[in-house]
Amino acid sequence: MGKLFVVGLGPGDYENMTVRADRALSACDTVIGYHVYLDLVRDRYPDKTYSSTPMTREAERCRMALEAAKNGSTVALVCSGDSGVYGMAGLVLELRGEDDEPEVEVIPGLSACISGAALLGAPLTHDFAVISLSDRLTEWELIERRLSAAAGADLSIVLYNPASHGRPDYLKRACEILLETLPGDRPCAVARSIGREGESRTFLTLSELADFPADMFCTVFIGNSSTRMINGQMVTPRGYRYN
Amino acid sequence: MGKLFVVGLGPGDYENMTVRADRALSACDTVIGYHVYLDLVRDRYPDKTYSSTPMTREAERCRMALEAAKNGSTVALVCSGDSGVYGMAGLVLELRGEDDEPEVEVIPGLSACISGAALLGAPLTHDFAVISLSDRLTEWELIERRLSAAAGADLSIVLYNPASHGRPDYLKRACEILLETLPGDRPCAVARSIGREGESRTFLTLSELADFPADMFCTVFIGNSSTRMINGQMVTPRGYRYN
After folding, report:
1. Taking CB atoms and an 8 Å cutoff, what residues of chain B touch A239?
2. Per CATH, which fold does A113-235 belong to?
3. pLDDT confidence of residue A53
4. HSE on the CB side for A173, CA within 13 Å?
5. B86 to A238: CB separation less than 8 angstroms, yes or no
6. Which of residues 74-133 of B touch A (CB under 8 A)?
7. Which among A5, A199, B128, B223 would be 20 to 30 A from A81, CA to CA?
8. pLDDT per residue over B39-51, tens digit each?
9. What's the rounded Cα separation, in Å, for the pair B135 and B145?
């Protein structure tokens, strides 16, 4: 009997992988994932079987991984960022259902909210919400409700999947919802290609964010009412009193 | 001129550290932090100067780290979990202010929401909120507002600092707020001492959670309306349709 590791790779660079993820990838014989994620690791672990499926075929990908593990392979199903947050761990466990086999181990990794925050300074020092703008699997009305609730509760907010080919204007729509509650000069930032070639960060206001040309490589951060820029970094205070 | 690394150690075990955190700790000459966190790394990096300050003296700790780095040391200011999320990165940047020196690098780590989720299955597959129940620096009314907002928006919720010596009943108070909106049988879980000796997980309903004897080593997870238990693990579906 094999085993299935669902592995969070982190943002993409080796340094931001966990030791545990590195060891799982070294130990496995088969690596399965979306092809962009396979490209992140292929050179470092060359002696494995690599299999990919495209976007929208995640159930097939997870079934392939479960099947290979049941057949005796030690499989690493890899995800960018964390294996749980918008990752494949949940779907793997749903598809395995009440079977005890194969054994599944979920290996956490740095999700973009965490790695992006570190790139920007410290925007998530206090309570925050993580919301995906992808309505492929979720009603847009629910996404709007979550955006309004987060803003109304003065939470910092991280937006995943702010745009894609078929959804170029979702970030603008999200900002319009937020601007019903938040001021236009609220500090925001966009972290792009975190941990990869072309990594960049942009600091801007919420009003400017509405017109920012986001793409699928971007993670968006919206500050709370205490967030401010300090020496070019985005900082949300925890509330410590000093001096 | 030295440098200050603000390092997220992850939950506490070596395997769940990032390669980058390991390298920063190996390279530094001085390690500063709360003594519990220093104990996590002392044996593995024995040839360093170790300095600690107690709880409630975080500003002193950060100033000590900034001063040592200004004086030429390569300093690692260590935090459990992530360096940003309820960590020291924000306070370091606040205290450094508009000075360019010393150089500060924020190294992200696995925050308890991420590492705890992986231990429990996949409770954070979809949108979620992270809220601390500590009112040392934050008004309890704001915490309540955030709890209500998160529950009302059908977000999964992660509670940090669910209890401490002076705050034994805060988890009960938080659950009472949540039970105004959520059903008593909502799946929840408590991850305790993640990545450390005595690591444990408890699955229970929201009603049961109200009476759970939480302590400072616990991270609490509350599911959204789709969350369910599958083969002993807590799973929040992303919404993928299969079969």
Report:
1. 137-138
2. 3.30.950
3. 83
4. 15
5. yes
6. 82-87, 89-100, 106-111, 114-115, 117-119, 121-132
7. B223
8. 989 999 999 999 9
9. 13
Collect all residues of chain A within an 8 Å Cβ-Cβ radius of residue B143: 127
Among the partner residues B108, B114, B236, nearest to A108 by beta-carbon distance: B114
In the numeric block, the tokens 């086999």 are attached to A101
Does any CB of chain B come closer than 8 Å to the CB of residue A150? yes
Is residue A56 scored above 90 in pLDDT? no
Output the pLDDT for position B73: 98
Class of domain B3-110: alpha beta
pLDDT in tens, A22-34: 999 999 999 999 9
Closest C-alpha among B144, B208, B207 to residue B179: B207
Residues carrying CATH 3.40.1010.10, chain B: 3-110
Start and end residues for every CATH 3.30.950.10 domain found in chain B: 113-235
- Secondary structure letter of residue A165 according to DSSP: T
Residue with tokens 């690394």: B5
Q: Token digits for B157? A: 């919720």
From residue A93, alpha-carbon distances to A31, A48, A160 in Å are 18, 24, 23
187-226 in A: which are within 8 Å (CB) of B?
A: none
In percent, how much of chain B has pLDDT > 90? 92
- In whole angstroms, give the CA distance from residue B147 to residue B160: 12
The answer to whether ipTM exceeds 0.95 is yes
> B24: closest CA among B132, B109, B142, B118?
B109
Cα A183 versus chain centre, distance: 26
